[in-house]
Each structure stands twice: as C-alpha cells, then as structure tokens.
Amino acid sequence: MHKTLIIHAFKKAEEERKKRGEKKPSKVDLAGDISNFIKDEMEFGLGEKSYRDYFNEAKKLGNNLKDISIKQLKVVVGLCRFLGYKTYEEFEESIKSESILQKLLVFLKKYKILIILFIITTAIFMVIVSVNRQRWMIWNGSHYIETKFDAEKLQQGLLKVYKEDRIKYFEKIAPDCNTEFFTEEGLENLWYGKNSLGELEYFTDLARHPETGKSLNPITSYMIKKYICEKYP
Q1: Which keywords, in A-to-Z order, does the entry hold (predicted)?
Q2: At a CB cut-off of 8 Å and minimum separation 6, what does 231 contact?
Q3: Which of 40, 56, 86, 184 is paired with 143 by a 20 to 30 Å CA distance?
C-alpha cells in the first residue's frame, strides 16, 4: 500500500499549496514540502528527488495491483503522519474502509435502476401484505358486517377499517314509543341524522352516518315528540 501512501501525500501537499493561492504547484515543490515535514517530524533527511522518484514509480503503476516499496521505515511513518495518521496500520485501515465505500458507491451507481425497482417492489409487497392483514367492514343497510378487501369499494368510500364496537353496537333502527331513548343515568341511547335523501334515520351508537359521513346527533325530547312518539312525556 506504499503506492497509495505516496500518492495521497503528494495530493495533500498539492491541496495545501493551492489553498495558499498557487494554481499549479510543481512536483519539486510538493516533494520539498513532504521532505521538510518528515525531516522535522522524524528527524530523518531524504532528498526531495527520492520522494519524486517514489511518486513517479507509483503513478506509472496506475491501477495495477503491484505496489512500490519504500525502504526507509521512518519515511513510511512520516508520510502517514503527514496525512494525519499515527501509524501505518491506521492508514491501512482507513484506506480499506475508503475502498469498501468506493466499491459500494460504484455498485449503487451501476445497479441504481435495479435497486430502485427492488425498493418499489418491496414497498408494494408490504402494502399488499398490510392490506391483506387489515380487517374491513361494510354497511349493509342496517348494520356493519365484516368483509374482504375490495379496492373499488374502498375508492368509493364504502369500505371501512374494521372496528369491533361498530360491528357489535352500531345499527339502524326504527324507534317507537317503546324505545328506551335514555339510560337510567339520563345518557342518550339513540342518535339521529339525515341520509342522502334528507330522511331522518336513527342509530344505536354515536358515530358518523354510514352513508353521508356526517356526525350523528344525540336524541332529544323535542326530536322524540316531534318525529317518533307524540305521547312521549
């Protein structure tokens, strides 16, 4: 990995000179910066030409799997410190992680369309599974009954999410003078609302009208006397 090490060092040296305003720093200057740093950091002197030779050798190999060999251990450690690493092992681990990330990015870019299709397919599958697990109910004219999922009925607003209390307690009735309109505590036992034709309908629990979706109103003595039982006390 010495090839990568020297190339990264020259790249950093170039970036630092460009930050100071230089547009095209020479390799001689870059090698000189690296040489001076390692001389101060490691107390080991190696001419800038040697660094240029290592760099040129590394660039010639390009993407070849072959590596160069930097013989001076202090130079290897010094280059690592120049790049901000304490040891050569730390540098190796960083490059390996960087390589894995690059391979992942290449993979994602190469198979982007397939990945998107996979995500969409998975999402659709999850929705289908969720829909199939969900219980549904529908109004049959007098009360709610459990039913299977139907996309068309759902779109029409006829299909409702299953609610056990609606199944058990909510139904339409035709009240008369014998109906218990209130509990012993004085709470309503009946609610009313108009259907799509404007006709009054009566229900045994508080909810929305199953056809119009409007909130039902609690029964009152006035409504009872006027529309249900004239003799109601």
Answers
A1: Membrane, Transmembrane, Transmembrane helix
A2: 177
A3: 184
Domain end position, chosen among 58, 85, 104:
104
Q: Are residues 140 and 92 in the same domain?
A: no
Separation of CA 137 from chain center: 32
CA 86 to CA 33: how far, in whole Å?
A: 19
Q: How many domains, in total, are found in the chain?
A: 2
How far is Cα 76 from Cα 26, in angstroms, rounded to an integer?
22
Q: Write the pLDDT tens digit of every residue in 10-41.
A: 999 999 999 999 999 999 999 999 999 999 99
- 131 part of a folded domain: no
pLDDT confidence bin for 103, thresholds 50/70/90:
confident
Boundaries of domain holding 219: 136-228
For the residues of the chain, what is the DSSP string, one character each?
A: -HHHHHHHHHHHHHHHHHHTT-SS--HHHHHHHHHHHHHHHHS----HHHHHHHHHHHHHHTT-S-------HHHHHHHHHHTT-SSHHHHHHHHHHHHHHHHHHHHHHHTHHHHHHHHHHHHHHHHHHHHHHS-EEEE-SSBEEEE---HHHHHTT-EEE--HHHHHH-BEE---TTS--B-TTS-BS-EEEE-TTS-EEEESSSSB-TTT-PBPEE--HHHIIIII-TT--
Q: What is the pTM of this model?
A: 0.46
